[in-house]
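tool_call: predict_structure(chain=1)
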Amino acid sequence: MNSLMYKDHRIPLLQFTIIGVGANGSHFFRSLCQDLRTHLNRPGFDKAPSFKLGHIMLVDGDVCESKNLANQVFDKDDVGEHKVIALAERYGEHYDLPILRYPEYVRDIDTLNNLMGVPEHNPKTTMFMPVLIGMIDNVRP
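tool_result:
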């Protein structure tokens, strides 16, 4: 980020959207939360932040099933619950991060555009940087 900031001087406002929180996405999300919290807790970050975190949006219409417990980061209490809700509650609270959830499948570009909307910010001091992460492991009609 330093090379980007060298030329621009605005603080990046990161907004993550993760589509798919199954076998790949659930593990990625947990690691992302841990990495972000570690960086946000770095000494001096509050006085001279290298970025601002808007939120992390989890997108998936799938419900946790018992078969998911072997290879995804869910436990038996999550069975029957939407995956995005279970993950947002567990890791959002644990890492104290702003986690939004959309418990439906993305089926068209308009939905994706709405999920990736530009938040209110000052473009003179902040550069909006949306990050779309595709972790879909199957395609549903």
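agent: The mean pLDDT is 91. Proceeding to next step.
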